[in-house]
């Protein structure tokens, strides 16, 4: 039961590392920079509940061939890298291997499936935040369990995930879970543009209202498309915009769980901008715009967030204050 983590960065090192700490046979496939870090320090994994694990002997490789023996592959590259990762996996994997996308966005599973017709491809969802603290150290800063599409091929691994402290919740239908996560990811561009840790950003009403505006627009489109997002947070998706829009003192009182975040945690989009990488904006807010187009409608707020992130990707990373962002979005 060999497991490969393909694209071992923040999510891959954390999920794969916990599986390895629980006794699973895991190989990590990723970039040389992280291979060097992990060779020097091993993996150090912590979480918001106080877990503190060291995985000393980590097999971190940098070529696709390292995944060849895997029965289960967890794909954790950013969405723009999925097609290349799939082509690389197609050249090495045995027919019958199981491949799970643990990525944000809606279509990564489809991209993998098209390129890996001989493997079982499933879609998963990671609800929690992982902070890369450097030197092989990764911290789970928020709560949540791993979600995945239900399939018999997962049965041999259910215990390994449970032993890792990351039990799998299996779903007959994963699309509503993916859209529920995407609704939360609509905060990624707001967070990246704020240039603040998540907790500080969400403590400011104008940023929360910007996030809520993007959600409200998306919820209306989902309703028109007949998609009901799954319930992945304590508050159902359709109630989140009202909760987010509350004045600060009420929000802090009524939504304390949403602010129970590691003080340093940021979104993966902020990390991408800092690293000068292309963000996942096309796979998050871009999906909302595509959904609108498919319905003959528009999504001006999500389109504006895409424009602003494009500017940031082009080098203009000046932080946008909450009230300015809200004005830009509501006048879009
Ligand atoms: N970070 C978080 O808190 C969360 C992230 N997610 C989602 O999980 C997914 C992974 O995110 P995250 O872990 O943050 O991303 P990272 O960028 O930290 O990790 C991905 C790693 O894969 C490497 N990589 C890309 N292509 C290949 C390839 N073909 N072969 C080997 N390595 C490759 C990347 O290198 P390089 O950069 O050089 O391409 C990078 O080091 C994303 O879809 C993200 O949205 C979901 C929940 C929370
Ligand atoms: C967990 C969350 C919503 C925020 O960190 C995320 O998915 C991301 O950063 O991409």
From TrEMBL:
Keywords: NADP, Oxidoreductase, Pantothenate biosynthesis
Pfam families: ApbA, ApbA_C
Record's keyword annotation contains NADP: yes
Catalytic activity of the protein: (R)-pantoate + NADP(+) = 2-dehydropantoate + NADPH + H(+)
SUPFAM superfamilies in the cross-refs: 6-phosphogluconate dehydrogenase C-terminal domain-like, NAD(P)-binding Rossmann-fold domains
Record domain Ketopantoate reductase C-terminal: where: 174-312
Residues covered by the Ketopantoate reductase N-terminal domain: 3-151
Broadest EC class assigned to this enzyme: oxidoreductase
This enzyme's EC code(s): 1.1.1.169
Pathway connected to this protein: Cofactor biosynthesis; (R)-pantothenate biosynthesis; (R)-pantoate from 3-methyl-2-oxobutanoate: step 2/2
Stored NCBIfam families: apbA_panE (TIGR00745), PRK08229.1 (NF006083)
Function: Catalyzes the NADPH-dependent reduction of ketopantoate into pantoic acid.
Family per similarity comment: Belongs to the ketopantoate reductase family.
Protein name: 2-dehydropantoate 2-reductase
Organism per entry: Kribbella ginsengisoli
